[in-house]
């Protein structure tokens, strides 16, 4: 079974914040695949399942709050006997320009608490990721305030496109090696299409 984990914070207060870019992608995939993502106590999150290209694919939104995302990921792995190499984690990234996605299959948490928590709970930095660009805040703006803020109106069309592109990349990754998906989608952006 393949599984897609979108990171974010639960609750209406966080709904369209930059930090919830991962949730936005899972919500869009759920819409595309006509799947409901509902509470699942085994993995402390919201989960849905679909059959895509003949394969079972799970969508997971941890409800543990960002800093404890690893608890949900570990719970899912243990209960469903899921393999780490079948997981793709989607999350917001300050070091990627807004509107762009970057795919990687390993690396440090880079200061992202959700990824830090997952690394702690799975014991490795090697797992597939789709990073959603949110750019860095202007000098003087606290990171925490920035990531918990919403995308300004002017960035909405770009963010929408970025979510679509992340979904396209994930769908492509379901039937192609992740390296091939990286080659196809990295480096693309608002101006390169």
TrEMBL record:
TRNA binds at residues 14, 65, 67, 113. GO terms for molecular function: peptidyl-tRNA hydrolase activity; tRNA binding. GO terms for biological process: protein quality control for misfolded or incompletely synthesized proteins; rescue of stalled ribosome. Its EC number is 3.1.1.29. The record marks 92 as: Stabilizes the basic form of H active site to accept a proton. It holds the Pfam family Pept_tRNA_hydro. GO terms for cellular component: cytoplasm. The record marks 9 as: Discriminates between blocked and unblocked aminoacyl-tRNA. It comes from the Bacteria. Coiled coil: none annotated. SUPFAM superfamilies: Peptidyl-tRNA hydrolase-like. It is found in: Cytoplasm. Keywords: Cytoplasm, Hydrolase, RNA-binding, tRNA-binding. It catalyses: an N-acyl-L-alpha-aminoacyl-tRNA + H2O = an N-acyl-L-amino acid + a tRNA + H(+). The active site is at 19 (proton acceptor). Hydrolyzes ribosome-free peptidyl-tRNAs (with 1 or more amino acids incorporated), which drop off the ribosome during protein synthesis, or as a result of ribosome stalling. Catalyzes the release of premature peptidyl moieties from peptidyl-tRNA molecules trapped in stalled 50S ribosomal subunits, and thus maintains levels of free tRNAs and 50S ribosomes. Monomer. Belongs to the PTH family. This is Peptidyl-tRNA hydrolase.
